[in-house]
From TrEMBL:
Keywords: ATP-binding, Ligase, Nucleotide-binding, Purine biosynthesis. Its EC number is 6.3.4.13. SMART domains: GARS_A, GARS_C. It comes from Mycobacterium saskatchewanense. Belongs to the GARS family. InterPro entries: ATP-grasp (IPR011761), ATP_grasp_subdomain_1 (IPR013815), PreATP-grasp_dom_sf (IPR016185), PRibGlycinamid_synth_ATP-grasp (IPR020561), PRibGlycinamide_synth (IPR000115), PRibGlycinamide_synth_C-dom (IPR020560), PRibGlycinamide_synth_C_sf (IPR037123), PRibGlycinamide_synth_CS (IPR020559). Its cofactor is Mn(2+); Mg(2+). Residues 107-312 form the ATP-grasp domain. It holds the Pfam family GARS_C. This is Phosphoribosylamine--glycine ligase. GO terms for molecular function: ATP binding; metal ion binding; phosphoribosylamine-glycine ligase activity. The gene is purD. It catalyses: 5-phospho-beta-D-ribosylamine + glycine + ATP = N(1)-(5-phospho-beta-D-ribosyl)glycinamide + ADP + phosphate + H(+). One of its GO terms (biological process) is purine nucleobase biosynthetic process. Pathway: Purine metabolism; IMP biosynthesis via de novo pathway; N(1)-(5-phospho-D-ribosyl)glycinamide from 5-phospho-alpha-D-ribose 1-diphosphate: step 2/2.
Length: 422
């Protein structure tokens, strides 16, 4: 089977490495990719938002399966175009991708499916902002305001703050830019990311993971696209894991099918394990980054066959997934000033080591690998337990040099020390 992966992040690099371990995968191509993915797959260029271009490329590389990584092409219907061309595609239709692309749609689906989630309100008129802010946050017993960009914002449109002025300024800025604002009640409790391979009513969960969205140690500083992740979650009871699948993901998949937009692809549920049980923070329509880097490091089942089964409607026959024992930790190395405007163009030393996945990297004409984005690398360590996986990841990071770069030193630390309780 020849597989074409669309995207250019560490998530796509992780997908390529896992696909390469599948004995039935005989060819791998990536577009547009980065300096790291070029070493493991045939690298091509494409406008990822253009269904016509992706279809033409899939034909050119004779792909039997196209795997679409990022949300933007999915929301724009690129998977529909690939399927319409008669090529198997792992990724939902535009109609089903609204579970990520439209927060109003997601809330409506969750409500119809009876799924617990934050109370929310969309504000699109600046004149109504103050009254809406009064209905959320500390005046209502919540520790903080949760203010989100209602459009796709790669995780960076979220501000969680106990300071009304900060919340107001973020919301006002979004409204001024023409983006509707989503206000949400605060969900208190440790967060879980659960990725499920879904094909209509069949739901196959991967290992649960946790990601770290704030830029600084101890969950300080602004939100990012994700600074690190670990899997599995030693503190998550098995019955809670099962109930997330049975009481949240399966009903949502069934509701999407009932509405005539069955989901086929990766359904990602982000939850908080509150005192009242799991509550949904968000659904996404694709693999999450950086959790994918940790989760796929432990997958033993053949990924190409799994994704192909979902893409061709035979996922129900695939059977149980197999996983390595132990744990995996992914730590993101970010460029100076990320999540603000990152410094780019610096030479990176040590980026070709085992366990180093590339995101914002490019190869310069002189052959040097340089930074080209905010999140530059994802370094993945595995081990018999979380402490060993952390040690492995930070050991690799020690040998990487990028001027001005930064990373969190506490990825998976609280869990490794047994400090997370539900
Ligand atoms: N891990 C956050 C995201 O992928 O959206």
């Amino acid at each position: 089977m020849r597989v074409l992966v669309i995207g250019s992040g560490a998530r796509e690099h992780a997908l390529l490495l896992a696909l390469r371990r599948d004995p039935q995968v005989t060819g791998l191509a990536i577009a547009p990719g980065n300096a790291g993915t070029a070493r493991v797959a045939e690298q091509r260029d494409v406008d990822i938002a253009s269904g016509d271009e992706v279809v033409a490329l899939a034909r050119d590389v004779r792909a039997d399966l196209v795997v679409i990584g990022p949300e933007v092409p999915l929301v724009l219907g690129v998977a529909d175009a690939v399927r319409a061309a008669g090529i198997a595609c792992f990724g939902p239709s535009a109609a089903a991708a609204r579970i990520e692309g439209s927060k109003a749609f997601a809330k409506d689906v969750m409500s119809a499916a009876g799924v617990s989630t934050a109370v929310s309100e969309i504000v699109d008129n600046p004149a109504l902002l103050d009254a809406a802010l009064d209905r959320f946050g500390p005046p209502n017993g919540d520790p903080a305001w949760v203010v989100k960009d209602d459009r796709l914002a790669a995780g960076k449109g979220v501000v969680v703050t106990p300071d009304r002025e900060v919340a107001r300024a973020h919301a006002a800025g979004l409204l001024e830019a023409g983006h509707p604002v989503l206000l949400e009640s605060y969900l208190d409790g440790p967060e879980v990311s659960l990725f499920c391979v879904v094909d209509d009513h069949t739901v196959v969960p991967l290992l649960p993971a946790q990601d770290f969205k704030r830029v600084g140690d101890g969950d300080t500083g602004p939100n990012t696209g994700g600074m690190g992740a670990y899997a599995p979650l030693p503190w998550l009871p098995e019955d809670v894991h099962r109930s997330i699948v049975a009481d949240i993901v399966e009903p949502v998949a069934a509701e999407l099918a009932r509405r005539g937009c069955p989901f086929s692809g990766l359904l990602y549920v982000g939850l908080a394990i509150t005192a009242k049980g799991p509550a949904v923070v968000e659904f996404n329509c694709r693999f999450g980054d950086p959790e994918t880097q940790a989760v796929l490091a432990l997958l033993e089942s053949p990924l190409g066959q799994l994704l192909h089964a979902a893409a061709t409607g035979v996922l129900a026959d695939f059977g149980e997934l197999r996983w390595s024992d132990g744990a995996a930790v992914a730590v993101v190395l970010a460029a100076e000033n990320y999540p603000g405007r990152p410094r780019v163009g610096d030479v990176i030393v040590g980026s070709e080591a085992e366990g180093v996945l590339h995101a914002g990297t490019a190869r310069r004409q002189d052959g040097e690998i340089v930074s080209s984005g905010g999140r530059v690398l994802s370094v993945v360590g595995t081990g018999a337990d979380l402490a060993a996986a952390r040690a492995a990841a930070y050991h690799i990071l020690d040998s990487i040099r990028l001027p001005g770069s930064h990373f969190r030193s506490d990825i998976g630390l609280a869990a490794a020390e047994g400090r997370i309780r539900v």
